[in-house]
Amino acid sequence: MKSVQQRLSALREAMKKHGVDAFVIPSADPHLSEYLPEHWQARRDFSGFTGSAGTLVVTADKAGVWTDSRYWEQAGQQLAPNGIELQKMGVDAPYTEWLAQNLPEGAVVGAPADMFALSGERGLKQALAAKNIRLEYPETLLDEVWDDRPALPTPEIYVHHPDYVSETAAEKLARIRTAMKEQGADAHLVSSLDDIAWITNLRGDDVPFNPVFLSHLFISQDKAVLFTDAGRLKAESAEALKAAGFEVLPYAQAADYLAGVKGALLIDPNKTAVGTLRRLPEDVRLIEAIHPSTFFKSVKSDADITHIRNTMAEDGAALCGFFAEFEQILADGGELSELDIDGMLYKHRSQRPGFISPSFDTIAGYNANAALPHYSATPENNSKIKGDGMLLIDSGGQYWGGTTDITRVVPVGNPSAAMKRDYTLVLKAHISLAETIFPENIKGPMIDAICRKSLWQAQCDYGHGTGHGVGYFLNVHEGPQSIAVAAVPQPHHAMKSGMLTSNEPGLYRPGKWGIRIESLVINRPVENPEETEFGKFLYFETVTLCPIDTRLIDTKLMTGSEIEWLNQYHAEVRRRLEPLTEGAAKAWLIERTEPLAR
Q1: 192, 292 in Cβ contact below 8 A?
Q2: 133, 377, 400, 456: which could form a disulfide with 338 (CB 3.0–4.6 Å)?
């Protein structure tokens, strides 16, 4: 395997050959996925930075990676040995501006067309226009220097278990076609993998932790063409597609197929790669909007919600077993490291009905490591769980009946009063959002401040968003909803009944400790409303079922209503999980759900 320096040297030579002054490698694939198949991990391999988000820019004598605050410390450590500068998004100039400032008049910027979104192309071209800098897509440049590029994934594509599917693929197509008519579209192209998996009721293993498969989907009023490799379809998958009215063509033929499109084509410019549209006729009118399916799948049906509740109970029972084992090992004087946590969690989750896989790489951070929101322990860099402090564990599972995502923080030894103060502030923030009642259709970013109130009053804050959408046996991060103070409220952020979202405030002290308390919540209509003339109101039903550790709480900072909320939550956790646990797991559950007194 080549070193990063060798890759960069080869890339610069290829840039000279192709007449390119700068080359941009985003963290992306032709589907603009958050998590990528190995075949598109170019930014990682050419920079050495292993985080999930970032953009690498290489010129003849400079290189930089732009990434967000989750990864600043990690990226700084991984980039420095390779002579690549960390560029902090939100602090430093965007890479588009950096290119315009550092390149001469008439220069050429290159990029891989299959990793560049249509919206990204427009933003870059606009930034470069003043200096007459051209954007080009040299087709072979990256492959010329990435000679050990991994092959495309080939796992089988299977059917989402029918017992957990509440709407047929044919019914979903009908809803999408109605939405197309409403928007004046003759055809619709879907490249986002979670949308396609949802529409077809199929699942795959092409991306770690996300049960999706490489594909594009073309929909017109009388045709639905799925571009994926037919040889990967299990027999029942092929039969299900045929029954729902899908035609199957090879994955590689999607761009060529679009050459025959006429009229108006509906696409999401943030989820469609430039390379996919390379043969689209110039006279085709683009209608640009979020995919209708993105909205449809964000609102879970009543049947889906029932399955999600049951899945959360199974996941909670698994966590009871895990925490009981974890605490017993430490009590017996055993030794554990952060690396042991993922395997222990997998052992307990894999014993529960309906479990498929983890939903993301477990984050287990002890003390200072937990101050990195997306910390990942490695054999070369991990901490032993010993002494005094706090362990943050962020983990989740994929089940036939839903996707879980939970963060809990537990004490080790004798945590300090300062740790308990910070933990309590985060818990207060979590409860503030959990008990919020809000108007239906309010934009998610607008309710973020409710969560942060207790932290802001203590002059504390956290850099990430408070809530992301979660799929239904799909991606752990899905839109369109977002509870994030940094997001500009948009119509697509409207909060609808049936949406599943995370509630995860945090507090991070670099070099000391990090705290995050995360549960998933479902938007539900207020029962027996006191008022009706002001419209419909929703509340959050907390569906994650796992005790929130009370040993870290400074009760002097809690209000009576906050303690009441926590006690009611723990009573529900015990009621739901007690029948699913036994032995040490049940004993741990009962102990950790004892009512908290002020």
Answers
A1: no
A2: 377
The DSSP H or E segment spanning 482 is: strand 478-483
| Mean pLDDT to the nearest integer, 137-147 | 93
Which residues, listed in sequence order, are joined to residue 333 by a DSSP beta bridge?
none
* 417 pLDDT higher than 90: yes
Residue type, 452: R
Q: Where does the pLDDT of residue 533 fall: very low under 50, low under 70, confident under 90, or very high at 90 and above?
A: confident
Measured CA to CA, the distance from residue 468 to residue 486 in angstroms comes to 13
Q: 3-class SS at 474?
A: coil
Q: Phi, psi at residue 436, to the nearest 5°?
A: -75, 140
Residue with structure tokens 């906050």? 562
Distance CA 564, CA 572 (A): 12
Burial, 16: exposed, middle or buried (Cβ in 10 Å; 0-12, 13-18, 19+)? exposed
Q: In what order do the strands lie in the sheet with 216-220?
A: 247-249, 224-227, 216-220, 187-190, 264-267, 285-288
User: What's the mean pLDDT in 108-122?
Assistant: 94
> Which pLDDT score is estimated for 373?
75
Contacts of 464 (CB under 8 A, 6+ apart): 69, 70, 373, 484, 504, 506
User: Alpha-carbon dihedral of residues 53, 58, 61, 66, nearest 10 degrees?
Assistant: -20
Dihedral angle over CA of 2, 5, 8, 14, nearest 10: -70
Task: Give the model's confidence band at 259: pLDDT under 50 very low, under 70 low, under 90 confident, else very high.
Answer: very high
Determine the pLDDT at residue 1. Answer: 73
Per-residue pLDDT, 523: 98
Q: How far apart are CA 245 and CA 287, in angstroms?
A: 24
Kindly tell me if the per-residue pLDDT of 300 is higher than 80. Answer: yes
Measuring CA to CA, which residue among 462, 374, 395 is closest to residue 75?
A: 374
For the chain, how big is the Rg over CA atoms in Å?
Answer: 25
pLDDT tier for residue 255 given thresholds of 50, 70 and 90: very high
User: pLDDT grade, residue 45 (50/70/90)?
Assistant: very high
Candidates 424, 347, 329; CA nearest to 385 is 329
Task: Count the Cβ atoms, other than its own, within 10 Å of residue 313.
Answer: 18
Pick the residue with more confidence: 376 or 402? Answer: 402
Token pair listed for 465? 């968003």
Please say whether the beta carbons of 109 and 134 come within 8 A.
yes
Give the span between the Cα atoms of 352 and 372, in whole angstroms. Answer: 30
Q: What pairing do the DSSP bridges indicate for beta strands 500-503 and 519-525?
A: antiparallel
Cα 213 to chain centroid, rounded: 16
Amino acid 72: pLDDT: 83
Q: How far is CA 127 from CA 62, 253, 394, 488, in A?
A: 19, 32, 38, 21
Distance CA 147, CA 149 (A): 6
Distance of alpha carbon 380 from alpha carbon 350, whole angstroms: 27
Q: Which residues pair with 66 in a beta bridge?
A: 55, 87
Q: Average pLDDT of 43-53? A: 92
pTM: 0.94
Cross-strand bridge partners of residue 501: 469, 521
Whose CA is closest to 505, among 517, 514, 513?
A: 517
Output the CA torsion 544→524→494→216 (10° steps): 60
